[in-house]
């Protein structure tokens, strides 16, 4: 997300015209944000190479903290998918100066075209193999440190496909996240009424905000209060869920000797 001061722009002006590369030369000052520290580091390098001075912050849009009326313009491209809009809408209104503008547009960055995209799609027989591969790779990576190697090896794409196909047959909705920039599918999630499961991101694509995107999407699809279960040793997932307004219910299931599964329910946001 980009926040800017000293950018005198017109309502309806297309977003590429107000990106830093086009407005920097006119004296606009920019602050860039992203929830991923890795993406921020990459952005810093690109800005340095382009000779642009941009202040970068690694934080959620909901946690941006500036004085009222700081910015002339706030723009959001792909990051719009990450937002908890009931929080960001009043926040952006407060941060903008009187008469300030909020611009939102989905961009296909690799070719410069301005096209609306669908990042999240349903999984069916046409793309189940891709979803199964994502599930397999992520499951094996997340379980290899505490599961028997032979047991981990059994969770092949073919094995996980059987699991996912059976879930879909029983009424579970399965979705897959497509990253427009890298042009590949990066994660999956399943929803059965209010139960969120199978939130898996490819190991190479983790810590980039994709898990947040899928989690928020899944919550929006739940018919009632979202719930989920995670292994008690999955500390990264627990941090994500707490950050997104989930709390432990106190319910536990023993998965194996010395390892429990714990239930979370969405209580805020």
What does this structure look like?
Keywords: Methyltransferase, Transferase, Ubiquinone. One of its GO terms (biological process) is methylation. This is Ubiquinone/menaquinone biosynthesis C-methylase UbiE. Residues 118-269 form the N-acetyltransferase domain. Helix content is 31%, strand content 30%. The longest helix has 16 residues, at 128-143. It contains eight helices and twelve strands. It is α+β, with helices and mostly antiparallel strands. The protein has two domains: 2-104, Vaccinia Virus protein VP39 (Rossmann fold), CATH 3.40.50.150; 120-224, Gcn5-related N-acetyltransferase (GNAT) (Aminopeptidase).
Short structural description:
This protein is of the alpha+beta class. 31% of the residues lie in helices and 30% in strands. It has helices at residues 20-23, 37-49, 85-95, 128-143, 149-153, 157-169, 210-221, 235-243; strands at 2-5, 29-34, 54-58, 71-76, 96-104, 120-122, 173-179, 184-192, 195-201, 227-231, 246-256, 259-266.
């Amino acid at each position: 997300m980009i926040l800017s001061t000293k950018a005198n722009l017109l309502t309806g002006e297309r977003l590429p015209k107000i990106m830093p590369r086009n407005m920097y030369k006119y004296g606009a000052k920019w602050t860039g944000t992203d929830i991923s520290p890795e993406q921020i580091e990459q952005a810093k390098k690109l800005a340095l190479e382009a000779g642009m001075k941009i202040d970068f912050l690694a934080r959620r849009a909901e946690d941006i903290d500036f004085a009222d009326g700081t910015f002339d313009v706030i723009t959001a491209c792909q990051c719009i998918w990450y937002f908890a809009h009931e929080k960001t809408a009043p926040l952006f209104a407060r941060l903008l100066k009187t008469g300030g503008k909020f611009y939102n547009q989905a961009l296909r960055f690799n070719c410069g075209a301005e096209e609306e995209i669908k990042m999240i799609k349903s999984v069916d027989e046409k793309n189940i193999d891709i979803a199964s591969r994502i599930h397999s790779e992520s499951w094996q990576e997340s379980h290899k440190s505490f599961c028997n190697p032979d047991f981990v090896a059994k969770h092949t794409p073919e094995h996980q496909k059987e699991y996912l196909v059976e879930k879909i047959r029983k009424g579970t909705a399965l979705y897959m996240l497509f990253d427009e920039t890298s042009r590949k599918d990066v994660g999956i999630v399943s929803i059965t009424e209010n139960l969120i499961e199978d939130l898996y991101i490819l190991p190479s694509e983790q810590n980039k905000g994709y898990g947040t995107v899928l989690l928020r999407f899944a919550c929006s699809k739940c018919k009632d209060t979202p719930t989920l279960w995670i292994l008690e040793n999955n500390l990264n997932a627990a941090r994500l869920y707490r950050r997104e307004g989930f709390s432990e219910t106190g319910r536990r299931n023993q998965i194996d000797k010395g390892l429990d599964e714990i239930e979370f329910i969405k209580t805020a946001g």
